């Protein structure tokens, strides 16, 4: 019997880009393949995906990628993985419906191998076996993944909560989770996002109550923004709107697409006559209208953000509108979200973003639910995932309070394998791992130096030095020049920079002047150092040698 290794290629010590590997000998199973969103310092970066080098290097061993659910932090990396290796994707029919279009758009020439599973199926993957188990979350058809190894089950909870009145009525299969616990869970990898919240999280169902009361009080139109994948929330809006005599229109391409797909597949049941086209909203008084919109994360191109700026041609926000902010800000997006909310207030729209009435509930387990998962699975080893270091720390403390000894709890780090056999578990040698930055054109692999330069330009501007040199004689062919853009230092600073530049160039011998790399290096260096010393600014300094 071989060693079982569990490696997170993303998703531990952070929230986002979830991607984990279970390996036993020559068989590898991947669970999820997500993306994360850039932070404020990642200028010009659209998304961040895991570095898949480990999977590329071991591509003949990868038996499949098993998707727990269709949220971007679990599926958004797929196009970038599939661009590098051929591997079957296993997911539910619902997940497939949400990801297929996107994969085909991004990889038009690729034949994508998607295989559908149902919760309870047992899927062979080399000597490993994967069994998805239904659990509740904020999206339909969400699964935990039980990966059977020869030393026991590696159980990924995936994103979960225990919701006994879910919108679609489909409960978590607690019985099966308990049975797997009986069979023997070697390692539990648990969602830890909400470990700071005591007690038991509220059911999705309570949101309907909150919506009902906001709908009743609203004087004009009701707008609601949420994630385009939040199918349950859309269902609730349609139900409440129908009760209250309002028609619902949808703005935002992805949201419309998802709603169409889900309605066709029966995951959303829209009361007859409730859904209308945006164009037809003119036919109804404001009091009879509701509008669903994307843009809950302040995305610049989204309908809501454009509406808040008065730049959305198809719909204008106006006095008397009420917007329900029914989502959770993803860390890093707060600034853009507040700016959007403030602009909406300026336009006379009342925004309900944090209210005593529940207008959003989290899809992740609170403390008591996390304990219940531990109790059901009764794992030998335990490791929190889907959390930042503070979440991992607190989760292990809670497990410790439940009696878990220190040597059976682990704090995983991206790229460090947890190696287990029948008698022991310990961390192994780091595998290639990291983040890959994808720019706004969709091209992956923006290097860190580029990002550093962008930040320097964005913060302190750019200084261009032009040096005319006759490289055959090794003499200056004119005076150097310094130009600056987006740079604003104290008066005289560029003159001072010019003086040190002039001195540095004068000090170079003929042979040194013939060496353009040397000239660029010396010129850039003295100017950079002077500006930094005198002003503390770090503009991007770009020396150019003009050979004449
Ligand atoms: Zn999720
Ligand atoms: Zn997630």
Q: What are the key terms here?
A:
Metallo-beta-lactamase, Chain A; binds zinc ion; 32% helix; 3 domains; alpha/beta; Ubiquitin-like (UB roll); 8-stranded mixed sheet; Rossmann fold; 25 strands; 548 residues
Protein model, in words:
The protein has 548 residues and is an alpha/beta fold. The chain has three domains: 4-199 and 362-439, Ribonuclease Z/Hydroxyacylglutathione hydrolase-like (Metallo-beta-lactamase, Chain A); 205-352, 3-Layer(aba) Sandwich (Rossmann fold); 448-547, Ubiquitin-like (UB roll) (Roll). Helices cover 32% and strands 23% of the residues. It has 16 helices and 25 strands. The strands form five sheets. Strands 7-6-5-3-2-1-19-20 form an eight-stranded mixed beta sheet. A six-stranded mixed beta sheet has the order 8-9-10-11-12-18. Strand 8 (123-125) and strand 9 form a beta hairpin. Helix 5 (174-184) packs across helix 11 (367-377) and helix 14 runs antiparallel to helix 16. The model has no long low-confidence stretch (mean pLDDT 95). Bound molecules: zinc ion (ZN) (2 copies).
């Amino acid at each position: 019997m071989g060693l079982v290794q569990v490696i997170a290629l993303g998703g531990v010590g952070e929230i986002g880009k979830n991607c984990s590997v279970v390996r036993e000998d020559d068989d590898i199973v991947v669970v999820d393949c997500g993306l994360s969103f850039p932070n404020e310092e990642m200028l010009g970066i659209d998304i961040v995906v895991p570095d898949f080098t480990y999977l590329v290097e071991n591509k003949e061993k990868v038996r499949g990628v098993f998707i727990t659910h269709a949220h971007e932090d679990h599926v958004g990396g797929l196009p970038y993985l599939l661009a590098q290796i051929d591997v079957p994707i296993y997911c539910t029919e619902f997940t497939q419906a949400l990801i297929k279009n996107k994969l085909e758009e991004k990889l038009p020439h690729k034949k994508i191998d998607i295989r559908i599973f149902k919760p309870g199926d047992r899927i062979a993957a080399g000597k490993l076996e994967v069994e998805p188990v239904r659990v509740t979350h904020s999206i339909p058809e969400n699964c935990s993944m039980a990966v059977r190894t020869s030393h026991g089950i590696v159980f990924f909870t995936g994103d979960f909560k225990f919701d006994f009145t879910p919108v679609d009525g489909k409960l978590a299969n607690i019985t099966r989770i308990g049975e797997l616990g009986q069979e023997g869970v070697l390692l539990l990898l648990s969602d830890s996002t909400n470990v700071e919240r005591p007690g038991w999280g509220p059911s999705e169902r309570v949101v309907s109550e909150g919506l009902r009361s906001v709908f009743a009080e609203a004087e004009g139109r009701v707008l609601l923004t949420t994630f385009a994948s939040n199918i349950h929330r859309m269902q609730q809006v349609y139900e409440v709107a129908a009760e209250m005599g309002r028609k619902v229109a949808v703005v935002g391409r992805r949201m419309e697409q998802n709603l169409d797909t889900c309605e066709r597949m029966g995951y959303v049941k829209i009361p007859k006559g409730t859904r209308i086209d945006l164009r037809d909203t003119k036919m109804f008084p404001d009091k009879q209208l509701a509008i669903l919109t994307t843009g809950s994360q302040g995305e610049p191109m989204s309908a809501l953000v454009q509406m808040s700026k008065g730049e959305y041609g198809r719909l204008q926000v106006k006095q008397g509108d009420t917007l329900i902010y029914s989502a959770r800000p993803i860390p890093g997006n707060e600034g853009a979200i507040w700016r959007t909310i403030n602009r909406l207030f300026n336009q006379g729209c009342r925004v309900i973003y944090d209210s005593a009435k529940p207008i959003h509930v989290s899809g992740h387990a609170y403390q008591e639910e996390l304990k219940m998962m531990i109790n059901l699975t009764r794992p030998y080893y335990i490791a929190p995932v889907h959390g930042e270091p503070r979440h991992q720390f607190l989760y292990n403390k809670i497990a410790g309070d439940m009696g878990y000894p220190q040597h059976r709890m682990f704090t995983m780090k991206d790229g460090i394998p947890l190696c287990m056999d029948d008698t022991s578990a310990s961390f192994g040698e780091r595998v290639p791992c990291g983040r890959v930055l994808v720019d706004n054109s969709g091209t992956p692999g923006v290097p860190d130096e580029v990002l550093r330069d962008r930040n320097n330009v964005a913060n302190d501007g750019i200084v261009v030095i032009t040096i005319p040199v006759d490289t055959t004689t090794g003499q200056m062919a004119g005076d150097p020049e310094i130009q600056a853009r987006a740079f604003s230092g104290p008066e005289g600073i560029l003159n001072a920079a010019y003086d040190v530049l002039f001195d540095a160039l004068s000090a170079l011998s003929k042979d040194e002047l013939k060496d353009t790399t040397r000239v660029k290096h010396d010129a850039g260096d003295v100017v950079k150092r002077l500006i930094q010393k005198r002003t503390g600014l770090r503009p991007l300094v770009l020396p150019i040698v003009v050979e004449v």
